Amino acid sequence: MDSAAFNLSAQAGIGMTSQRTRTRMVERLREQGVKDPRVLHAMGVIPRHVFVEPALANRAYDDTALPLGFAQTISQPYVVARMIEILLQGRDGLGKTLEIGAGCGYQAAVLSILTKQVFSVERIAPLLSRARDNLRQLKLTRIRLKHADGNLGLPEAAPFDTVILAASSKTVSQTLLAQLAPGGRLVMPLVTSASGAEQVIFLIERTESGWIETRFDAVRFVPLLAGVE
Ligand code: SAH
Q: Residue 229 has what pLDDT?
């Protein structure tokens, strides 16, 4: 386990007031079917209220997406937990991981409890700087953030053992797949209807004999967009 996990609640003003609501959130995740103790631990450690707007802090541990501004949302806790659990299934760890769509940095923080090497890219500059501030406040300074179009992946840090997209797309990017290490896994919300309304969690795994694809729960994510702003 990462030592950062132990130090978090010791930091001034963070964690103490919300530990009980966070424990309830973890209980709810368990009831919803999240089983991996590593994931439940990480979800219990990261104070989600630090990542949401102060006006919404009282809803920080509700199991819903919340607005971040810029027409973006902080992901629903269940979906964060579920996608990470899928990446970890049958594995020792996440290895070197790339997140596309840092938003406010919440999921990157959860990932950083589970692995030492977390890279995350975000296309909206003010959101990225908010993620940077939030992560710095929690002293999670090892996470590498970049203002970039995630459609390009992060070639300078590739290959990755795991890639997680926080925005939905109709197609699986060949560019991202090319940045997966052998045995690597990519998880994303895949759009399955013309309107974009129907999406499922989609896992694609690189094996010696080819690609293995698996579909999981229905989800609803903001779209993966092109370019930066
Ligand atoms: N990971 C966040 C979720 C943020 S919502 C969390 O923990 O809550 C998804 C994010 O993906 C948005 O911030 C959006 O700006 C970003 N995004 C969408 N398309 C992108 C792209 N091509 N490259 C990088 N980020 C992208």
A: 95
- Which amino acid does the sequence have at 94? L
CB 124, CB 229: distance < 8 Å: yes
pTM: 0.93
CATH number for 3-219 (one of 2.60.20.10, 3.40.640.10, 3.30.565.10, 3.40.50.150): it is 3.40.50.150
Question: Can 75 be counted among the known catalytic residues?
Answer: yes
Q: What is the pLDDT of residues 60-118, one digit of tens each?
A: 999 999 999 999 999 999 999 999 999 999 999 999 999 999 999 999 999 999 999 99
Which residue type does 208 have? Answer: E
113: Cβ contacts below 8 Å, ≥ 6 apart: 1, 2, 4, 5, 41, 42, 45, 46
Query: Is any atom of ligand 1 closer than 6 Å to the C-beta of 165?
Result: no
Pocket test for ligand 1, best of 46, 52, 100 (most atoms within 8 A of CB): 100
Spatial contact of 153 and 179, defined as CB atoms under 8 Å apart: yes
Share of the chain above pLDDT 90, in %: 87
Closest C-alpha to ligand 1, atom 19: 224
Every domain of the chain and the residues it spans: 3-219
